[in-house]
Amino acid sequence: MPELPDILLYLHALHPRIVGRRVTGARLATPFLLRSVDPPLSAVEGKTIVGLRRLGKRIVLEAEGPGPSAAEGGLFLVFHLMIAGRFRWRPPGTAIPGKVGLFALDFEHGTLILTEAGTKRQASLHVVQGRDALARYDPGGIDVMNADLPAFVEALRRDNHTLKRALTDPHVFSGIGNAYSDEILHAARLSPFKQTSTMTDEDARRLYDAVQVTLMQWTAKLQGEAGDEFPENVTAFREGMAVHGRYRQPCPDCGAPVQRVVYAANEANYCANCQTGGRLLADRSLSRLLREDWPRTLDELEQRRK
Ligand SMILES: [Zn+2]
Fold first, then answer.
1. Is the domain of 156 the same as that of 225?
2. Residue 41 and residue 77: Cα distance in Å, rounded?
């Protein structure tokens, strides 16, 4: 699922292409994408895009309002890309690709196309009139890149959760998902399953710094690599990540093999050496399989592999 650096990358690429431009048409290939009824999608046709913003993991296009009053805001197209939704920028009038194509927004100089790989239809679009209506789509997590340390710590300690859960909860923090939470926890040298209630002030400070550095570095890296091109390869698995998606590959900091914990539908990756004092975290599916055999330390695991 696109996370903060990916969403900022899209906003960075979309801004010069569509802000200030008039929408000439809106084409829906899959009726299921559109989850709102009123106002209709056609309301955006003929209107100029006046702004872009992020709302949690959603990308919001703002078109000019119906009347002269700017106070209540305009018409908003609220996109949630979910796991496999991606934007494409194509020449004007490009046909929506079969199978993966969901939607196209036409401009005189180009077409913004939304695709979704796979068979699951999860990406969504809501058309919303006015700022009050838009606010209902804000999950309410704090904007981590603009939060100071006290605000960050307050949000972190509001409830007792594992760090992995707290970081990825959209009601607590905005825009962090499975990939960047793995990277942040590795940079902070903290276990994904550490409980927020057991964090020292020093742990919290280190986590805060890791959030800032990780998200800023990745945002700058992705935008630098894309340059003026429209991003075509937005993925949760980035070359250069330390642990995410790198199970059994060497940790870039210590060389120990990256570990994984599979839980629910997700997988967390971490380095036992750097983050858990060498302890392996119990993997629910694997530990059930292995029962008492589950190795407790990296040394034990390596001995067994030999
Ligand atoms: Zn390591």
1. yes
2. 9
Tell me the pLDDT band of 292, cut-offs 50, 70 and 90: very low
Ligand 1: distance of its center to the CA of 275 in Å? 7
CA of 296 to the centre of ligand 1 (A): 17
How many whole angstroms from 277 Cα to the centroid of ligand 1?
Answer: 10
113-157 confidence digits (pLDDT tens): 999 998 888 999 999 999 899 999 998 999 999 999 999 999 999
The parent domain of residue 129 ranges over: 4-135
pTM of the model: 0.88
| Residue 75's CATH number | 3.20.190.10
Residue 215 belongs to domain with CATH number? 1.10.8.50
Q: Do 268 and 190 have their domain in common?
A: yes
Residue 127 CA, ligand 1 centroid: distance in Å: 45
CA of 182 to the centre of ligand 1 (A): 12
Other beta carbons within 10 Å of 107: 18
265 and 177, same domain (yes or no): yes
37 and 95 together in one domain:
yes
Provide the number of structural domains found in the chain.
Answer: 2
